[in-house]
């Protein structure tokens, strides 16, 4: 009888403060959202086989069906992410003489994380695949090394511009404060990560667009180019954004929800100085703010996060942002 199938799971994440400074020696505060997850299953088989998810299939009833699929799912399925995860796992084990034997497997994946709306859907699939591979082969890669491996699958294998934030919080889980300062990164090869109690967070809402909004690598490409050129505006703004994460950590530990709310708004306003914000995202933020809530992007675009102050505000946000086509949830965090 073949051994039972193994699973690897990872949840969506929301950047609370500091993003997108993680790719620029910054600091971030981020949390996983357990309402949404990616699951990767490995089952022993004669050949190595990757079974496509419905979003990966290229057969449609007609052009209208294709257009609808692209509008909901985007152009990029998860198959390429699974392939990249398998390759970086193979290379990691080969370079360290870790035996994998001659076992093969069939990979299946599914994800409830909305695609391309800045909730860490791609990194969740890679993280889930890495966990499944470790379980299948009975290997344990040190936890602090895993985020860099997940990032390399996207950055080096697929050319997706990204930072460590998503991968760190999805590997560690819960609520994590991350310091990617240059001196720490150069000394350790990874950042300094502090797990905090998710119960420190106030009630929050997440609202996301119904379909793909941004491909994060494309959003960050211009910022990266300007950073590499030494653009003072970009570098100064990202430094200021990074400092918000440190202030947010202090506000959480002090129980100062008012300060945290102001920091969320400040993060969005600073980001807007150096990055183009889509009309849809801006409309969501402005609508939430008009109701007295703080709001900022969770990631590259397509979803926002903010603080809730009671059931009345929650109902108003659901109504107002729902009228703009967004899905609004009060997520389970951590």
Keyphrases for this structure?
334 residues; alpha+beta; six-stranded mixed β-sheet
Structure description:
With 334 residues, this protein is α+β, with helices and mostly antiparallel strands. Helices cover 45% and strands 20% of the residues. It has helices at residues 63-73, 79-95, 121-137, 146-157, 165-172, 182-188, 216-228, 232-254, 257-274, 279-290, 311-323; strands spanning 6-17, 27-45, 49-50, 104-111, 175-179, 192-196, 204-208, 296-297, 303-307, 327-329. Strands 1, 2, 3, 4, 5 and 6 form a six-stranded mixed sheet that branches. A hairpin with a 5-residue loop joins β8 and β9. α2 crosses α4. The radius of gyration is 20 Å and the shape is globular. The model has no long low-confidence stretch (mean pLDDT 93).
Number of helical segments with 4 or more residues: 11
Q: Could you report the average pLDDT, rounded to the nearest whole number?
A: 93
Give the termini separation: 38 Å
What global shape is seen? Answer: globular
Main sheet properties = 6 strands, mixed
Low-confidence stretches: none
What portion of the residues fall into strands of 2 or more residues?
Answer: 15-25%
Helix percentage: 40-55%
What is the H/E order?
Answer: EEEHHEHHHEHEEHHHHEEHE
> Strand pairing plus helix content: what structural class?
alpha+beta
Strand segment count: 10
Rounded radius of gyration (Å): 20 Å
Layout: helices, strands, pairs:
Elements: E1 6-17, E2 27-45, E3 49-50, H1 63-73, H2 79-95, E4 104-111, H3 121-137, H4 146-157, H5 165-172, E5 175-179, H6 182-188, E6 192-196, E7 204-208, H7 216-228, H8 232-254, H9 257-274, H10 279-290, E8 296-297, E9 303-307, H11 311-323, E10 327-329
Parallel strand pairs: 3-4
Antiparallel strand pairs: 1-2, 2-4, 2-5, 5-6, 7-9, 7-10, 8-9
Helix pairs in contact: 2-3, 2-4, 3-4, 4-5, 8-9
